[in-house]
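[Solved] Which block belongs to which protein?

Original post:
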Amino acid sequence: MHFSSSALTIAAVLLAGRAAAGFDRQACNGIGACTTSASCNYWPNRSDNGPQEPEYDCGSAGTINGQKSAGATINLSQGQSAQGAQIVARADFPRCDLAQPSATATLLKTTFDGGITVYGWIEYSCTETTRIPDGGCYSSLKNSSHVYTCKVLKDGQTCKHINNDIVDANSCPK
């Protein structure tokens, strides 16, 4: 049986649950931050439908299934260190549906699997003064920071979340 490394990574994160942390080695002036999905984010396929069910409808660009949606979310949780990550100027950042970034949030855009673009932000908590080593988020969440997903696009088309997988709408900052 053959599994791709990205499929195994996504499966591991889904098995570990939403609490699994990403690591942004560039955060907090290079000290690093352990990043977790904010409680008001959509999270792919928490239902029994499985990871191949459509998670986003992207109009003429088609749909995004839960496995790819999870991969994009994991990529965003790596923040500034993510492959394809770019810091976005506030003037170029889209209006979000669920929550709005604070004045101190780091606004990001990242690409995943070629055609998927995710806009989001991280509210960093930078309290540690010693560099966090790679893998330093497994036993504790140093510089615990929250990742928010704002907009998902596929091949330039805005995608609409089509499952009711919101964790806690009341916890979303407005």
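(Second protein starts here: sequence line, then its structure tokens.)
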Amino acid sequence: MTVGCFAVVFFLILNFPEESRWMFDDGKAFVKARLAEDTGDSQLDAHPTWGEVLGVLKDFKLILGSLTYFGLLVPGAGYAYFAPTIIRSLGYSPVMTQLYSVPPSAATFALSIAAAPASDYHKRKYIFILPLLLISVIGIIATLPIILCWFSVVSQRQRPLPISSSGAFFNSRWTPEAQCRYRLPNRLCNCGGPIATFSFLASDAPKYVKGYALSLGFMCFTAICCTLYFFALISENRKRAKGLSEHSGKSEEEKAKLGDLNPDYRYMR
């Protein structure tokens, strides 16, 4: 089904509104203006250098954000893959096994829907993520939505290599300059899937000590990465407040094109 849909959406989804063949000029202008308010200029004509591409690897937000997501993907995917198997080992029938696998996911959904908007409202991410990680240690309820949101809002607008560094986990501008920022976090994080596949082995039933230990270890790893991320953002905000940013001397027009590198921009912690 996914492959079949791809054959259709490949021709429908565009990198930029300017490339649309079925929209009128006023429609293109409207979409472009709406996107500009959210993510800045489209960068259609941008041609980044190899120095800019390699400079991506120096971005602490990209590295720490990727490691944070990777740490949660292992327990998250592990539960998604093996929840029915674990529940079935407790002696339930196939039907009851499926039914009992629903409440944890429902609780996760409700908690995510409540916590993510609350963190946006208070403009704080870390103080919401850490308590949820503690809950995750107890009940393996994922904190992925807030972490992804945190990583996304921190990497903002109009960067030479656009915000696909953060949103590329799900949405990216698939342009040549975006591929580098996309592939590193995406490939790194997706490595959690194969690890999760081998975390809860049938030979470990019914206690699955190794699987749970692995999940707990990766959640603790995520907590450490989140903490480092939190203090790194505080340090960067303080540097900018003191005028120590390398971009402090630029004009307002130049600053507007820097996105989150704008010395007047402050990261959400």
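Accepted answer:
You had them paired correctly. Confirming on the second one: The two ends are 40 Å apart (CA to CA).
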